[in-house]
Design goal:
The chain is of the alpha+beta class. It has three domains: 2-146, DNA ligase, ATP-dependent, N-terminal domain (DNA ligase i, domain 1, Orthogonal Bundle), CATH 1.10.3260; 212-409, 2-Layer Sandwich (D-amino Acid Aminotransferase, Chain A, domain 1); 413-531, Nucleic acid-binding proteins (OB fold (Dihydrolipoamide Acetyltransferase, E2P)). The chain is 34% helix and 23% strand. It is built from 19 helices and 20 strands. The chain has helices spanning 2-12, 17-30, 33-43, 54-65, 69-79, 82-89, 104-112, 120-133, 136-146, 156-167, 171-177, 186-192, 262-268, 294-298, 308-313, 336-348, 369-377, 458-470, 527-531, and strands spanning 212-213, 227-233, 236-243, 246-251, 275-285, 290-291, 316-326, 329-330, 355-356, 384-391, 405-409, 413-424, 433-442, 445-452, 472-476, 479-482, 487-492, 494-497, 505-508, 511-515. Helix 2 packs across helix 10 (156-167). The termini are far apart.
Length: 537
């Protein structure tokens, strides 16, 4: 556990990629397999569910620190992170002579996991004993594990890179082995680092091939005939796997979503065994051949049961644009042209429309950069985000390599809005008011419109933080209402009607595009202007 905590702080103390990879590699070189696999589990984004209610942890930490509740809450408000606050207020610990800390695996499986089944009195006693085992920095990491909020500044890609250096196994192979659901066991770790291990799990998806944003003019890519143009859909990227008479549907986030899309599962039963498709799941209007608004698809997500009404109102399709495996053979090294030719043959035998090829961007042989530019400008009418440009002879690669797949998105919607609420951020922003709520005009008042927390530079964020502190009108828990003076341009990808929002509309991926120093609050946009952007067909 102490080695894992030391790794955490080494990763947290640097922004340099090379230093993070070196720290990870050093940890894997000395860690026992039983600990290494749990470290990989957490560092690649998996978490154990919260084991103790945060209200109880706050109460017990206050009591152990011998301080009043209001003082603890003031400390928490200032620090902005509960695990850090608890680690700071608890009495300092003197290292026990001759007593070693538990291993990471022992801590998780023998001390943390059992907490979930305890009654409150036993739970309090166990938590306090855990706090007493560790020093301040170790308690911070312990708190993150206990509350299910473990995060540190390292990506899954960097963990895989360090494992590849440690084991000598190709990073693409390790990426594939870590796809899908797996348990943090010694047996899995041995399979992960086995240079001769064959992939045998029938449900295992492949690592997704991701595109880079195109910032140059598309003509810079060369002859248009060397590229395939596709619509860039706003749905759920997914792989559909048909192996040994079973179907598995995986999202790009590595969630198994088969049960949420039974139409696609049924259609996949017609696929030949040993077939893996890559595509986009969308709510789909068969009458006009275009997607439903994304908020319609959202109605189907996360539900345990799908009623007939939802099936009728939000039918879904998988628009399959690539073939990764056919006849049980991995065809990722084949060219895109060959893969899509085989894909057409596979899909031509399906009777269900729940899996189909996407509509063409430009029909016939008339494709040139000008016609593709015109098609891109019509993306919003297709409820698409722009175009995908894929090199005809490209293989299906891992991650986001540069050069073969590009996303050529249309410009986002933009509006000017007024800052009305602010809240402290998390992590390195815990002491800054960096999470904002913006409003637009409706009649003679301001109505909340969207929340955003990205887009400002660190220097701009500090200036906004200073403004918030000086211009707070009311406090609502962690949220402050501020004098409506600052105007910002917000960008977003889509807009839909919403009964859950006071404004009556909801936007997708809002972010701050710039601070409008040149505008006053009265110059911000009106709600009716935004409503006019809606596509209600």
């Amino acid at each position: 556990m102490r080695d894992f905590c030391e790794l955490y702080w080494r990763l947290d103390s640097t922004t340099k990629t090379t230093e993070k990879v070196l720290a990870l590699e050093a940890y894997f070189c000395q860690a026992a397999p039983k600990d290494a696999i749990w470290a990989i589990y957490f560092l690649t984004g998996s978490r154990i569910k919260r084991l103790v209610k945060t209200g109880l942890l706050r109460q017990w930490a206050t009591e152990e620190a011998g301080m009043s509740q209001w003082l603890f809450e003031e400390c928490y408000d200032r620090v902005g992170d509960l695990a850090e606050t608890i680690s700071l207020v608890l009495p300092s610990k003197q290292p026990a002579q001759g007593k070693s800390a538990p291993s990471l695996q022992s801590l998780i499986e023998n001390q943390l996991m059992p907490l979930r089944e305890m009654e409150e009195a036993e739970l309090r006693e166990s938590v306090v004993k855990l706090w007493q085992q560790f020093d301040q920095r170790e308690r911070f990491v312990l708190g993150k594990l206990m509350m299910g909020g473990f995060r540190v500044g390292v990506s899954k890609r960097l963990v895989i890179r360090a494992l590849a250096k440690h084991t000598g196994i190709d990073a693409a192979t390790i990426t594939h082995r870590l796809m899908g659901h797996w348990e943090p066991t010694v047996e899995f770790y041995e399979e992960l680092i086995d240079p001769d291990e064959n992939e045998t799990a029938i449900s295992k998806p492949y690592p997704f091939f991701l595109a880079n944003p195109l910032k140059e003019e598309p003509a810079s890519l060369g002859e248009v005939g060397q590229w395939v143009a596709e619509w860039k859909w706003d749905g759920i990227r997914a792989q559909v796997i048909r192996r040994q008479g079973q179907t598995f549907i995986w999202s790009r986030g590595e969630d198994l979503v088969t049960d949420q899309f039974p139409e696609v599962e049924t259609a996949a039963s017609e696929l030949p065994d040993g077939t893996v498709l890559d595509g986009e799941i969308l709510g789909w209007d068969q009458s006009n051949g275009r997607p439903l608004a994304f908020n319609q698809l959202q109605r189907r997500l996360g539900r345990k049961k799908l009623g007939k009404k939802l099936f009728t109102e939000v039918p879904v399709v998988l628009l399959a644009f690539d073939l990764i495996e056919t006849g049980g053979v991995d065809v990722r090294e084949s060219s895109l042209a060959d893969r899509q030719s085989q894909l057409h043959q596979v899909l031509s035998g399906l009777t269900s429309k729940a899996i189909q090829e996407p509509p063409k961007v430009v029909e016939g042989p008339s494709q040139d950069w000008k016609s593709l530019a015109r098609a891109r400008e019509s993306s919003k009418a297709m409820r698409a985000e722009g175009l995908m440009l894929k090199r005809v002879n490209s293989s299906y690669q891992v991650g986001r390599p540069v050069g073969d797949w590009w996303k050529w998105k249309v410009d986002p919607y933009t509006i000017d809005a007024v800052l009305i609420y602010a809240q402290r951020g998390h992590g390195r922003r815990a002491n800054l008011y960096s999470d904002y709520t913006f409003a637009v005009w409706k009649e003679d008042g301001l109505v909340p419109f969207a929340k955003a927390y990205s887009g400002l530079t660190d220097a701009e964020m500090r200036k906004v933080d200073k403004f918030v502190r000086k211009n707070t009108n009311e406090k609502f828990g962690p949220v402050r209402s501020v004098t409506p003076e600052l105007v910002f341009e917000l960008a977003f990808e889509n807009i839909q009607r919403s009964t859950r929002h006071k404004s009556g509309v909801a936007v997708r991926f809002p972010r701050i595009s710039r601070w409008r120093h040149d505008k006053k609050p009265v110059d911000a946009d009106r709600l009716e202007t935004i409503v006019s952007m809606l596509d209600d067909d």
